[in-house]
């Protein structure tokens, strides 16, 4: 369209100049009047196009099509409109026709009986007043999904910070929760397991109010990387206040995410701290710990990660992920034992297949297989003094299968050894008495249902079951929970929810711990 735009202008100017050479008293034929009417219409459309081009040159925004926009409708001559109160803006060479405005019936009859054309009277030049009236007409039209450039810039300034090529978008959750439990659990504000009825920590029913799950984060959008196929760079920093603290109302900062990444539709490279690759799903719970220690493994750690996405077809996507991770000693070492990192990193990997169409209103099924292998080092200073190396590994399966826009299910299953750093083994990874790793199996399953677009429920079952022979006396041998919740999305930013969990934890040589846990949560996002 833009290639023919200059030629159109030249033709219009040439023809208009020719027409204006006619003397004021001269009459035009009916064919000439039709030609003039068409020229008037073309000029009006040209002015509308000029306005659109000027706006696009200033900034690229979503604009309505010229043919249906308020601008184009407001500049078409009155001979093509049924509203005589909204005439087209005049142009320097425009020639008024006898039908330039909607005639009365008598005028129409007189025009039909007359064989003489109307005299030519040139119009005055375009005034700024006429142009401003056109802008008023355009601005008065319903906008719906269309916004002015100033409005877009104003909203963006409210949401982001800019520094050079980088855009920083702050976000967060203001999170308050209150919990009642019939028996004391570890840690109370959230639950890993229930204390044994014989444990000194077991004090019976307890009530908790917590705001330390409040989190703050920053999404960073950087420049595209030319040497990586112009992939988009960016990053994230996020923290909450669930760090170790002496008192519940004096939460300390806990780093959740801090990483840089570059990615596109085919690959992703990442360096920093974020979620593990293994067992990437999480139950939809309002509890902060997402049932860690009860069958759901996978945490956050520093890593170098690479991912590759291969679209085999419109209905099949292959995802391959791998990372080199930092080693974490999660077990509390007894006196005379020093835990330390080994001489090589933890290696994680995952391969997943996504079946079915992908995109809006589609419900693809994703099946993934993941695992890790690594090593931890424990140095015994007491007799017999020695240095022990504990193998940590896991093999995992994850499945997410939405059925429709309301119903779906998901779950994970894992086996492995020394999984305390991954929140497995009921947070037990190494037996310091037997000097061996603890073998563990576990998993979870969940079904979700949206009653309405705002009301939704999630019910599930989680279990973590270490090998009893690997557990020391007084250790935890079984941990399971049934849970169900009801959430209400008051707005897109504000969510309230109520969740009930039935917990049971078994011990080696001690009475079990059982508790019913009821939690209410209110979370406001920004």
Explain this structure to me?
This protein has 526 residues and is an alpha+beta fold. It has two domains: 5-147, no CATH class; 160-525, Porin, CATH 2.40.160. Helices cover 16% and strands 43% of the residues. The strands form three sheets. It has a 16-stranded antiparallel beta barrel with strand order 2-6-7-8-9-10-11-13-14-15-16-19-20-21-22-23. A two-stranded antiparallel ribbon has the order 3-4. Strands 17-18 form a two-stranded antiparallel ribbon. α1 (5-20) runs antiparallel to α2. The longest helix has 29 residues, at 30-58. It is elongated and about 120 Å long. It starts with a helix and ends with a strand.
Index terms:
526 residues; alpha+beta; Porin; 16-stranded antiparallel barrel; 23 strands
Précis, in short:
With 526 residues, the chain is an alpha+beta fold. 16% of the residues lie in helices and 43% in strands. The chain has 2 domains: 5-147, no CATH class; 160-525, Porin (Beta Barrel).
């Amino acid at each position: 369209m833009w290639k023919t735009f200059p030629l159109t202008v030249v033709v219009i100017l040439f023809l208009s100049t020719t027409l204006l050479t006619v003397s004021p008293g001269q009459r035009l034929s009916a064919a000439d009047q039709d030609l003039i009417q068409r020229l008037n219409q073309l000029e009006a459309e040209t002015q509308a196009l000029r306005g659109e081009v000027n706006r696009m040159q200033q900034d690229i925004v979503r604009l309505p099509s010229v043919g249906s926009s308020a601008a184009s409708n407001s500049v078409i001559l009155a001979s093509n409109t049924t509203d005589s109160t909204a005439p087209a803006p005049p142009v320097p060479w425009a020639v008024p026709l006898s039908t330039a405005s909607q005639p009365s019936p008598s005028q129409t009859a007189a025009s039909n009986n007359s064989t003489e054309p109307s005299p030519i009277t040139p119009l005055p030049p375009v005034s700024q007043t006429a142009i401003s009236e056109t802008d008023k007409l355009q601005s008065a039209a319903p906008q719906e999904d269309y916004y002015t450039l100033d409005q877009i810039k104003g909203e963006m300034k409210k949401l982001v910070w800019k520094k050079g090529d980088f855009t920083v978008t702050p976000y967060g959750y203001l999170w308050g929760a209150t919990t009642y439990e019939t028996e004391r659990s570890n840690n109370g504000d959230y639950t890993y397991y229930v204390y044994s009825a014989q444990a000194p920590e077991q004090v019976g029913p307890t009530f908790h109010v917590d705001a330390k799950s409040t989190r703050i984060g920053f999404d960073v959008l950087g420049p595209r990387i030319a040497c990586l196929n112009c992939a988009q760079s960016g990053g994230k920093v996020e923290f909450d206040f669930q760090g170790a603290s002496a008192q519940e109302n004096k939460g300390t900062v806990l780093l959740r995410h801090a990483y840089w990444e570059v990615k596109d539709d085919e690959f992703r490279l990442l360096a920093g701290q974020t979620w593990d690759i293994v067992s990437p799903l999480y139950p939809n719970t309002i509890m902060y710990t997402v049932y860690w220690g009860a069958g759901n493994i996978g945490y956050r750690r520093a890593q170098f990660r690479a991912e590759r996405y291969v679209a085999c077809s419109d209905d099949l996507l292959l995802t391959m992920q791998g990372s080199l991770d930092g080693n974490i000693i999660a077990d509390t070492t007894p006196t005379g034992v020093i835990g330390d990192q080994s001489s090589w990193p933890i290696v994680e990997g995952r391969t997943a297949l996504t079946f079915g169409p992908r995109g809006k209103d589609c419900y693809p099924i994703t099946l993934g297989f993941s695992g890790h292998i690594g090593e931890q080092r424990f140095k015994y200073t007491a007799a017999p003094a020695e240095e022990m190396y504990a193998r940590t590994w896991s093999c995992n399966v994850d499945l997410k299968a939405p059925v429709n826009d309301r119903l779906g299910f998901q779950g994970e299953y894992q086996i492995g050894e020394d999984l305390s750093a991954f929140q497995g083994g009921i947070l037990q990874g190494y037996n310091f008495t037997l000097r061996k790793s603890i073998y563990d199996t576990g998993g979870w399953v969940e079904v979700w249902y949206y009653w309405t677009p705002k009301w939704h429920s999630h019910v599930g079952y989680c279990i973590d079951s270490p090998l009893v022979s690997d557990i020391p006396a007084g250790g935890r041998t079984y941990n399971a929970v049934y849970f169900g919740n009801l959430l209400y999305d008051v707005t897109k930013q504000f969510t309230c929810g109520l969740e009930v969990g039935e917990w049971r934890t078994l011990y080696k040589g001690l009475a079990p711990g059982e508790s019913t846990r009821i939690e209410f949560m209110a979370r406001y996002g920004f």
